[in-house]
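quick one: threonylcarbamoyladenylate bound model?
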Amino acid sequence: MKTKIITKTNLPEAVHALQQGEVVAFPTETVYGLGAIATSQEAVLKVFAAKGRPSDNPLIVHVSDVDTVKNSVENFPKEAQLLADAFWPGPLTMILQAKPGIYAPALSAGLSTVSFRMPDHELTLEMIREVGIPLVGPSANRSTKPSPTKVSHVLEDMDGRIFGIVEGGDTRVGVESTVIDLTNDGGPVILRPGVITKEQIESVIGPIATQQTIATGEKVTPKSPGMKYRHYAPTTPVIALGDDISRWKEWIEQYHHENKKVGMMATEKMIAGVQSSIEAVYSLGNTIEDMNHHLFDALRTLDHAQVDVILAQTTTDQKAGLAYMNRLKKAASTVVK
Ligand code: TXA
Ligand code: MG
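yep, here:
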């Protein structure tokens, strides 16, 4: 199958293919998603196959209106309404108790819940409206690879595996949505951090827990199946380093001493401070928004730069920094404090 690049003018082609049960990647504000109609078991299974995704990891249903969500759940709690009013369309996914028999069983991966999100991307919202059925949309990378923020990333992983890719430019946010579980007995809980922060959510629905604080007996069990898998990992080893310039210099010197080529992904400030002759440098910009925006492209770019190791700058795990650190820790083989 030759994967087509579909532009805004050819959107009807994507709509038609989706209605026929084909897989079409689409842009969102976070990362590109791998779309298929959420009501067709056959179409949803194609998504799992194209990604190489384990069948016990559920998919998010992408909607263009809130009523679709209300009609497909057992219970639409007041928190869901408040959060939808505050953050949709936008990078927040809500897990709710599903009404049985509406969506393809494969997308829930054996759970009784379904997660929903309304992406903040006009072209994709229009496409969902035209298709007339919500779309599943896992990140459009092959399983374990960094999520795609550009059409070229999707092509790299999916060329020949899917019908097409809707061209929507580079994604704005760069890391996937915040996932909140509204079905938890102990109250809402964040299962995956994103750029919509715990503080922002609390300002709308009051105090909540993050997954790490929910202890079940001795150990913390991952409620979101996706959390247990290897993630975001380039082939080249990634070492996450703090913002101490002299530490960076030591690590670079040591690798050079071993005749190893070094790739560096760091802020403008760090790059200016290190001033060594590094084989490949990727600037993450200046702010935490820049760092989230560039993270996955940096990992992919440096993975192609023929270096032996990638040194990646860490940041604080507060607010939107938590989203960045959550991904970087999964991509990295070592995190140096
Ligand atoms: O920003 C995003 O959320 C992107 C864009 C394309 O919308 N999508 C995305 O999907 O990141 P995916 O499949 O790569 O990540 C979804 C995460 C997984 O960790 C999955 O395990 C979890 O959400 N998840 C989905 N449905 C769930 C459910 N019903 N219960 C618990 N976790 C769920
Ligand atoms: Mg993903």
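The chain has twelve helices and 16 strands.
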